[in-house]
Amino acid sequence: MTIILLYAMFEYMKFEHEITINASFDLVWDTIIDINNWSQWTPTVEYSSLDGDTFSLGSIATIKQPGTPASKWKVTAFSNRDSFTWDSAQLGVRMIASHEIRKIDESHTINILSLELKGFLTFLLWPILKRKIENILSAENEGLKLYCENQ
Questions:
Q1: Residue closest to 37 by CA, chosen among 143, 114, 108
Q2: R_g over Cα of the chain
Q3: N or C: which terminal CB in the chain sees fewer CB atoms within 10 Å?
Q4: Which residue, among 113, 111, 77, 71, has the nearest Cα to 94 in the 3D structure?
Q5: In whole angstroms, how far apart are CA 61 and each of 38, 48, 57, 129, 134?
Q6: This prediction's pTM
Q7: What 3-state class would DSSP assign to 52?
Q8: 3-state SS string for 68-103
């Protein structure tokens, strides 16, 4: 009984990181959807490539992050000009990542990153992944902030 409860608790993990960027909504959005250039602003991506010309619902991109094999991410939800969600699966874990931006005023934007992990290996990898994912989301948001604020 205890094992089943623990499995139910840890087969799903969700992380979120929010940051305020001193840059326009349009600049932040255009930077986020320019998948091919992510490695210019975030240390969490070594290589990224969009399959096709337009980033939208159904788009697929290849993302290579430090210490992991390259993975394919498919856009499963897309709200033009403010959010998208995409997912990928690797090593028995399904990853669902969301990028959402909110306009504060003409020169300030909030960026919200979230990552959900689902699957049995989530339970097994929880102690290793928790801190690492928190650091990755923070580094990605800090990189986006620095890049956009210096444009």
A1: 143
A2: 16
A3: N
A4: 71
A5: 11, 7, 12, 23, 23
A6: 0.89
A7: coil
A8: CCCEEEEEEEEECCCEEEEEEEECCEEEEEEEEEEE
